[in-house]
Amino acid sequence: MVLWSGRFSAPSDDDLKKLNDSLSFDRRMYRQDIAGSRAYADAICASGVLTPAERDAIVSGLDQVQSEMDAGTFAFQPSDEDIHTAVERRLTEIIGDIGGKLHTGRSRNDQVATDLRLWTAEALAQLAAAVHALQHAIVATSEGHIDTLMPGYTHVQPAQPVTAAHWLMSYFWMFARDQERLTQITGRVRWSPLGAGALAGNPFGIDRHALARALNLGTPMTNSIDAVSDRDYVAETLFAVSLLATHLSRLSEDLIWFSNPALGFITLDDRYSTGSSMMPQKRNPDPMELARGKAGRLIGNLTGFLATLKGLPTGYNKDLQEDKEALFDSLDNMLQILPVISAVVRTLKINPARMAEALDEEMLATDLADYLVRKGMPFRQAHHCAGTAVRVAGEKGVRLSALAVGDYQAITPLFGDDVHQVLSFSRSIANRSAFGGTAPSAVQEQIALARAVLAQSE
Ligand code: ARG
Q: Mutation test of ligand 1: which of 8, 80, 321, 328 has the most ligand atoms closer than 8 Å to its C-beta?
């Protein structure tokens, strides 16, 4: 049965059918499609299109369709163009011609828009839970390393000492913003297009507000043309997933180079490292590389779909069928990556000794400048003097702490006998105690705030 065969004298060409059909990928929305149909049967019954007995027959027929789908016994037919067609075809087989009343005033345009919104809202909730688990893992691993010192980097060059917890927690806040974005998007996903018809609205006086409530969607969309053609929420979801993937990719990149034996800052657990088929010694960070690699693909889904949207004229256009594969692919991949990365972070071994070995006294040059500032020198000048100390030490081939007080005083008499006290990594860190800094006291505060953020969404 083709739903729209009346005005045609010949069936579709086989190749066109293959191109046109979306069943292979939209069948996963069957629960949402059936939920939409149940609610719609109620709505058109309330407005007098169906008798209560007809509505009951439709609802029980839909129940049977759902159990066949759930059990995997539903027999799809070659004529089923998409999930909407398949459900209606089977419903009519089960309950007879009354099944054909369900589509009164409805179009697949408002139907698919509703199904996909319901599906996306559920997927966003799943995603939020997976991000939440990652945030927990970050906090748990960070908590053990509030006093662990490591080099902090800018431009991949040693910059200033930081604590390992501070480094790892920097990712917590990226994921916290991702989390916030998912919540905000969910608010915009949960609008109800149902009852918009193909584009012009419903002629049977249905109560679209009641229909929206029945679907647990917030409010009916205010304009029926917008209702059937809006896919902003798909683009926004693709963006949110892409940015999340970008953050994961950055974290992965850190874990990859920190796990390189030349640095040895971290060791990935055996369960989350992979070997080489040829080189017996290898421990490869494949999960991190896959996360980094997949970010490219997910960004592609976003840009591809935006390109699909940009030229569309008013109303529904079949181009919009492209929304689903992009969305499903991005969410499937993200939901595959997240639990693995969470486990990597949870089981991560941080090696404080290797981190300490990588600290270089030159990373305290800023502290030397700050010392002079405390003695009254303007920072610009202090920067120059500290830079001179680094150069002199370099010329003598010694560390900053091996320069004599006299060497320092030759640069500026403001350097006092206490100058060597500055050259302490733990002191440098403890000094940065202002809110958001790397001092253990500030990191404690940061972690407490992170825990509060997590508790809010529990
Ligand atoms: N399979 C279609 C989609 O995914 C359903 C809507 C079809 N509407 C239409 N007018 N052909 O968008």
A: 321
Q: Is the CB of 112 under 6 A from ligand 1?
A: yes
CA nearest ligand 1 atom 7, residue: 108
Q: How far is the CA of 116 from the centre of ligand 1 (A)?
A: 12
Q: Whose CA is nearest to atom 2 of ligand 1?
A: 321
Q: Phi first, then psi: what are they for 219, rounded to 5°? A: -140, 150
- 199 CB under 6 A from ligand 1? no
- Pocket of ligand 1 contains residue 411 by CB under 6 Å: no
- The residue assigned the tokens 């200033």 is 160
Dihedral pair phi/psi, residue 80, rounded to 5°:
-70, 110
**DSSP for residue 219:** E
Residue 84 has pLDDT above 80, yes or no: yes
Task: Answer for the pair 86, 80: CB distance below 8 angstroms, yes or no.
Answer: yes
List CB contacts of 129: < 8 A, sequence separation 6 or more. Answer: none
Report the alpha-carbon distance of residue 55 to residue 66 in Å, rounded. 16
Compute, in degrees rounded to 10, the torsion defined by CA atoms 353, 354, 360, 366. -80
How many residues does the structure list for the chain?
Answer: 458
Of the chain, the percentage scoring pLDDT greater than 70 comes to 100
**Amino acid 174: pLDDT:** 98
**Does residue 321's CB lie within 6 angstroms of at least one atom of ligand 1?**
yes
Distance 79 CA to ligand 1 centre (A): 15
- Does any ligand 1 atom lie closer than 6 A to the CB of residue 109? yes
Q: Are 244 and 178 in contact (CB under 8 A)?
A: yes
- The atom number, within ligand 1, closest to the CA of 316 reads 10
pLDDT surpasses 70 at 1? no
Confidence of residue 282 (pLDDT cuts 50, 70, 90): confident
Query: Domains in the chain, start-ordered, CATH in brackets?
Result: 18-104 (1.10.275.10), 109-198+223-357 (1.20.200.10), 361-423 (1.10.40.30)
Is residue 278 pLDDT above 90, yes or no? no
276 noted as active-site residue = yes
Regarding beta strands 219-220 and 191-192, do their DSSP bridges make them parallel or antiparallel, or are they unpaired?
A: parallel
**Average per-residue pLDDT for the chain:** 96
**Active-site annotation holder among 5, 60, 67, 276:** 276
Spell out the residues 6+ positions from residue 293 whose beta carbon is closer than 8 angstroms to its own.
none
